[in-house]
Design brief:
Layout (H helix, E strand, L loop, with lengths): L1 H6 L18 E2 L12 E2 L9 E8 L3 H12 L1 H6 L2 E8 L15 H8 L11 H17 L7 E5 L2 E5 L12 H14 L3 H6 L3 E7 L2 E7 L4 H12 L1 H7 L3 E7 L7 H8 L3 H9 L18 H18 L6 E4 L6 E4 L5 H7 L2
Parallel strand pairs: 3-4, 8-9
Antiparallel strand pairs: 1-2, 3-5, 5-6, 7-9, 8-10, 10-11
Helix pairs in contact: 2-6, 10-11, 10-12
């Protein structure tokens, strides 16, 4: 049943700027009851989505830019699960880093968030202050002071100042934001986690789970796998509550799916793939030939669908931490795998 439900989920958006979205900034009152008429918001999201979240964006703040750029690359993915994101631009002491025309449309706003953008006139302050005044009055009336995100709910407006509170140097803030938005749209990510077909890392078997999405032809996956295998006892000693679960799936090459399905036979099969890995060709050692056990092929397919829903197709390896009720996503291989694992709490 869960696999059938996942098959109805649209695939994640490609990492390219979408062309959809309103041509102009819109009055917030057109989107949600109670928002002040003077507040202007920007969005490329599909109108009429089931869930709306209003993000505060601070001029010149690199974290605000990172969060917006993640959104801009994943609009179609979020639309597919019924989540619309609306951006409220606010001033900081760095307001002169933005030109007023950046606030004319979502496309202009995206251009001004892109790496390398430099303001010409830096004349956005008046428009940012007008937004600040409108937002501040609304926030005070609804108890939303200090939030970075707000949304209407059946019980009235609510907000959050700490969804990214667990962010640290080893966790990608934008990806964690994306995971949070998926949780908002899908309501509960735990059925997706329960659908994963995993392989336990011997010797690292604590109760707090770290899921590692692994492709048999991924060079960085191999590096991390061998590091963890060689240091399992040290990892457990440094963090006894940690339990690592590998999630095989194939996305890199046409034959990766067959290899990942064969890897699902167990840890020994994964180890054969990695220890016989062809570094020159970046190819795992397991066979890519057809004729995979149908049950294992089905498990690989379910892993791939859950990976897309949970991460937005964020690549492999991706690390999803679910310990102590937290849910954090780190795409890509950490700079120092041992340090990253030791810090997970």
């Amino acid at each position: 049943m869960l696999a059938a439900w996942l098959l109805g989920l649209a695939p994640p958006a490609p990492a390219a700027a979408p062309v959809a979205g309103s041509a102009q900034a819109v009055h917030a009152r057109q989107l949600a009851d109670g928002l002040p008429d003077a507040l202007r918001v920007l969005s490329a999201s599909r109108v009429g989505a089931g869930h709306a979240i209003y993000m505060l964006w601070y001029a010149g703040d690199p974290h605000s830019r990172a969060l917006f750029n993640w959104y801009w690359q994943h609009v179609a993915d979020l639309d597919s699960i019924g989540v619309a994101v609306y951006w409220i631009a606010l001033p900081t002491s760095d307001a002169d880093t933005l030109d007023a025309d950046c606030l004319d449309s979502i496309a202009a706003f995206a251009r001004c968030n892109a790496p390398g953008y430099q303001a010409d006139a830096g004349d956005a302050l008046d428009r940012l202050v007008a937004n600040f005044n409108a937002w501040s009055a609304f926030a005070a009336a609804h108890g939303l002071r200090g939030v970075w995100a707000a949304w209407p709910s059946p019980r009235g407006w609510t907000g959050s100042a700490n969804v990214l509170a667990s962010h640290d140097g080893g966790v990608d803030g934008a990806a964690t934001f994306g995971l949070y938005l998926r949780k908002l749209g899908l309501r509960d990510l735990h059925p997706l986690l329960a659908s994963l077909h995993t392989i336990a890392q011997p010797g690292v078997d604590g109760a707090q789970r770290l899921y590692v999405f692994w492709d048999p032809d991924c060079a960085y996956c191999r590096r991390d796998f061998l590091t963890i295998a060689a240091n399992a006892a040290a990892i457990h000693a440094a963090n006894p509550t940690l339990g690592i679960r590998w999630v095989p799936l194939g996305v890199l090459r046409p034959g990766s799916r067959a290899k990942a399905a064969r890897a699902l036979a167990g840890y020994a099969a994964m180890a054969r793939d990695e220890r016989g890995y062809d570094e020159a060709d970046e190819s795992g050692a397991l066979s890519a030939a057809p004729g995979v056990d149908p049950a294992l092929a089905r498990e690989e397919s379910e892993n791939r669908l859950a990976w897309a829903a949970l991460t937005g197709g964020g690549g492999t390896p991706s690390y999803l931490w679910t310990g102590h009720g937290a849910m954090r996503l780190t795409p890509g291989s950490p700079d120092d795998v041992m340090q990253f694992l030791a810090a997970l709490r």
